[in-house]
Specification:
This protein is of the alpha/beta class and about 575 residues long. It has 3 domains: about 5-140 and about 435-465, Rossmann fold, CATH 3.40.50.2000; about 145-345 and about 415-425, 3-Layer(aba) Sandwich (Rossmann fold); about 475-585, Immunoglobulin-like, CATH 2.60.40. The protein is about 40% helix and about 20% strand. The protein contains 20 helices and 20 strands. It has helices at about 15-25, 30-40, 60-75, 80-85, 95-105, 115-125, 145-150, 150-160, 175, 185-205, 205-215, 215-225, 255-260, 280-295, 310-320, 335-345, 355-360, 375-400, 410-420, 430-470, and strands at about 5-10, 45, 55-60, 95, 105-110, 140, 230-235, 265-270, 300-305, 320-325, 345-350, 365-370, 475-490, 495-505, 510-525, 530-535, 540-545, 545-555, 560-570, 585. The strands form 5 sheets. A 6-stranded parallel sheet has the order 9-8-7-10-11-12, sandwiched between helices. A 4-stranded parallel sheet has the order 1-2-5-6. It has a 4-stranded antiparallel sheet with strand order 13-14-18-17, with no helix packed on it. Strand 10, helix 16 (about 335-345) and strand 11 (about 345-350) form a beta-alpha-beta unit. Helix 15 (about 310-320) crosses helix 16 (about 335-345).
Length: about 575
Amino acid sequence: IRKDVYHMNEGHAALISAKRLRDYVQEEKLSFNEALEVVRASTLYTVHTPVPAGHDYFEESLIRKYMEPLVNKIGIPWYQFMDMGRDNPGTNEKFSMSVFALNTAQESNGVSKLHGLVSQEMFQPVWKGYFPQELHVGYVTNGVHLPTWATSSVKRIYENNLGEDFYQDQSNPEIWKKVYDISDEEIWGLRMHLKEKLVDYIKSEFVDGWLKNQAAPTRIISMLDEIRPGSLIIGFSRRFATYKRAHLLFSDLDRLAKILNNPERPVTFIFAGKAHPADGGGQSLIKHIVEISRRPEFLGKIIFLENYDMRLAKRLVSGVDIWLNTPTRLQEASGTSGEKAIMNGVLNLSVLDGWWYEGYVEGAGWALTAKRTYENQAFQDELDASTLYTMLESEIIPLYYAHNSNGYSPQWVKFVKKSIAEIAPHYTTKRMMDDYFDRFYMKLAQRSKKLAENNYAKAKEIVRWKEDTASKWDKIEVIKLEFEPVQEVDINNGKNKIYGEVVIDKKDIAAELGLECVVVDYDSTANKVEFVEKYEFNLLKTEGSRLFFQTREALNDPGTHQYALRIYPKNPDLPHRMDFAYVKWIS
């Protein structure tokens, strides 16, 4: 099989890069740097976790045990290989598989728009001369496989109304607008049918286990009486990690009891999921939910379903009315269960994190703000819980029960239609794969082919350029620096202007050089320098090895800022700045 592009998902997959380096050195007789250039040109690294704790770090002794024979065949010193997995080369840091992946991949991405930004912050130590906002870390938001996760009933409605060939073009938003033409009665009938199937499934699959575990038949009978398809059913089903904050709902049990026990507007919460065996917090949370579900006021109103698997997941993402997701902000990389729910006409109620940060559409679900109000997590949890209760009491429950003379809520159906028509097409696997192809696969394949032609001539040329530039980089000398962070107001456009003239002697460096002004703000509270914007200096002329630069720029963000100048190497054959991230700062 001819392989044009290698896609590494998570850092542990980066071992493929080590093997490929060995192959290019041993079989193609390339130098290590040439092999690295070729490997990088055809490699994409996708990170799926938003927190440093989710990345693999290994002691040097363990890495040496398994990797030393391979490194010997690559032909580089052991310390050089270890440095490829360290934020700070030349130290005794553990070996990070994620850093190794970044150093052996031309392209990298997160799995949602917000996660891409979080990943830039997380990976900034790898490219120390640059701010997170500048890093070449993109994103492709995860999608779900529609034929797998949409029920047969849902797919029949799509096929009948959107066309049988809509699967081939399922990421086309125009096709999905036909959902608006489906009658309200058909949409409501579909939703009730799927809820009935979920309730029947629960009663057939879980009663025997409940009888064995709870040993109180009268309690089970009472609980089953409360599980009704006509009730508003809200689902929370996923891996029980503490950051998912399943506990939010139970912050005020008295208020929750009032919400759930209104005989005119019954509400049922269904929880399901598993905790990692080593996650004591997640296991304790499941135990807590089960204990609450057995209290008289919550019997049949809060249900925990055990033995979570794909079969149960498919029932839940189609059979509830609302999919609840309450992660701690910036800790949800993407999340796909809510996307699966959308495909079946289930509405989302979620913190604006992960995929919902970009997927939320007003009038097609509900959102808790993306911004934190409190740094103290306990205070933030309390606020989010109160907000959640209020949304249920004042918006969601009244909307669901605003039944007309035909026995359904037209406004609820309006939400369902809008969520399917305006959100679903953007979160299919088809759209995801199109994005990977357009943003990464095609350009990697093209550049990889270019570098491999004529016995890797272009790869060897780039390596020679990099080696020459790196060996002479410290020779660069600033001959003249006239740059004052004094701004004059441009009366024509109301913006401030900056002026600067710089002369640089690049000595015998063959590389072209760029010069830019980086505008920053200093946050004294966080003791952090924040990137604002940057401006490229114009190269006026060249005299021998001397470069004459000038800038006359109007600031997009006027105000009081700090400034620094930065020299960097330029080469049209580089895919982006991070590929050769040398910089020289001028005070």
